[in-house]
Amino acid sequence: MSQTDVRMDGSPRLRGAREATPGSAGRRRERLMVPRADFDSYYGRPVLNEPTWRAPDIAGYLFLGGLAGACSTLAAAAELTGRPRLARSGKVAALCALGGSVYALIHDLGRPERFVNMLRVFKVTSPMSVGTWILTAYGPQAGCAAAADVSGRLPRLGRAAAVGAGLTGPALATYTAALICDTAVPAWHEAYREMPFLFAGSATAAAGGLGMLAAPLEEAAPARRAAVLGTAVECVAATRMERRLGPLAEPMRRSRLLRAGEALCLAGALAGITVGRRSRIAAVAAGAALLAGSACTRFGIFRAGMESANDPKYTIRPQRKRLAKARAERELE
Amino acid sequence: MREQPVPGRVGFFTDTSICIGCKACEVACKEWNAVPQGGLDFTGMSYDNTAGLGADTWRHVAFIEQRRPLGHQEPGVGDMDFRWLMASDVCKHCTHAACLDVCPTGSLFRTEYGTVVVQEDVCNGCGYCVPACPFGVIGKRESSGVAAKCTMCYDRLGAGQEPACAKTCPTDSIQFGDLDELRERAQRRLEQVREAGATSARLYGHDPGDGVGGTGAFFLLLDEPEVYGLPPDPVVTTRDLPSMWRHVGVAALGLLAGMAAVAWRRR
């Protein structure tokens, strides 16, 4: 019969606590003092150090930078095709998104007061350095274009600035793909072939959404088409990425944010070219869905990368596979 | 992106087969470089509560317990096979250093000794070097907001001294010297260890043909690298950067063309 220790049920057979036998309750189970070592890794700890970037800043910047760049391009195209109100909304939105971008970038620095140190060098090996110079080239033009349009002064300078911002905008919208892919984070690095297209598509969809949201129906046709085009590119790029990466894309396939992003963009784009052509309210709702979808996609990609950096299997398994392949090839020769 | 190693490049050869896990290297490093404490953690991972390299840990001693024999050693714990692997990890001072490549301020630079060092007064704490490092070495220090990692005791090298960890290592598991000479020494040591029965011994980071062009700090390991928390086949991320820029360029032009197409269609 098993001995009973201290009991809470008030049983008459209860012995006093002083007589309790320590360590006698239940059968002895095998317990490892050390966590069972999974020798594919060092105690399951990540190989990489987790990126110090914070999601609201950097994922937020991926979205805002893309929005600003694509909005400037859409605005320039609208201006050159005689759609002044679509152009104005694009220019103002681009300037606001640019402000948010610069704030997020500086806020994420460990020493924000030293942000000007980025301008000490130009390094093509550092997408962040290239991005700094893209922002430096793009920012004043976007600001000038918006200021000239809203104030109505210096129209020719404003037009030149709008075209300039429209030409540099795509660089701002897509370089961020190189920014995150040029790291050792497995899900980002290995996705470098599709990421620029995913980001270009997402930015185009967001700019289209903003145009639908802010411009009157009769001028918003390019915005509606941009939303459809951007969403299509984004979805195709995401599908190809997930297929090509195989097991590495697990964090992306699992991501609810990415699924929500796709659903919102698809819904927004479809609503935009159907009911959004006739109803102002529908256009506003579709535009908002597209903006939210684009933001979800960027935050989803950011999170998926973080997840892949924090799990050693995503670092070790592909490298093991690469080594095995190289060995097999050597043996064949 | 592809710096040539300067003549007279120095490095570490960490021979883990004679590491006794005393952590004197961790202590000496902290003392000499005034590295702040990284918090008092209890990890429950063998005798390792430092966990890994980062801004406040520039040397890290890994403890691995395995129920496997080490060479012909008799562990003396009944019938059970048992071995302890200990290894002092450090910044690899890669030939192709991703942290240095991606640094947007030029704070990280290559010294005249072929090592990679952060200039604390230039770094603005963007944190790009942290995910760029394929070994998980460099980190951003919370207290100062800037990146920090092993300097291979840049100040001591200038005075003709060896780095503090190598100086203090009681078994000479950490050896400092001319990199070419260390590589030869390591090769001889590897043969010796293998002859002694430790057939799983291998060198790690010694090969200039690997994905990071060989490391300035390399190791003699007794098991697969990932067992020690090291990546089995690290590649400098900037190796693919030319292709990344091409893809970005095509995507940017595509965006421009797409926007033009949607605006000029059916005027």
Largest sheet of chain A: none
- First CA to last CA of chain A: what distance? 70 Å
Determine the number of helices of chain B (DSSP H or I, runs of at least 4 residues).
Answer: 7
The residue fraction in helices of chain A comes out at: 55-70%
Which regions of chain A are unreliable across 5 or more consecutive residues at pLDDT < 50? Answer: 1-7, 28-32, 35-39
The span between the termini of chain B is: 48 Å
Mean pLDDT of chain B: 93
Please give a handful of descriptors for the protein shown.
heterodimer, A: 333 residues, mainly alpha, 11 helices, globular, B: 267 residues, alpha+beta, two-stranded antiparallel ribbon, 10 strands
Summarize the structure.
The complex is a heterodimer of chains A (333) and B (267). Chain A is mainly alpha-helical. Chain A has eleven helices and no strands.
What can you see in these coordinates?
The complex is a heterodimer of chains A (333) and B (267). Chain A is mainly α and 333 residues long. Chain A has 11 helices and no strands. Chain B has 267 residues and is α+β, with helices and mostly antiparallel strands. Chain B is built from 7 helices and 10 strands. In chain B, strands 8-1-10-9 form a 4-stranded mixed sheet. In chain B, strands 2-3 form a two-stranded antiparallel sheet. Chain B has a two-stranded antiparallel ribbon with strand order 4-5. In chain B, a hairpin with a 5-residue loop joins β4 and β5. The longest helix of chain B is centred in the C-terminal third of the chain and has 24 residues, at 241-264. The model of chain B has no long low-confidence stretch (mean pLDDT 93). Chains A and B meet through α1, α3, α4, α6 and α7 of A and β2, α2, α3, β6 and α7 of B.
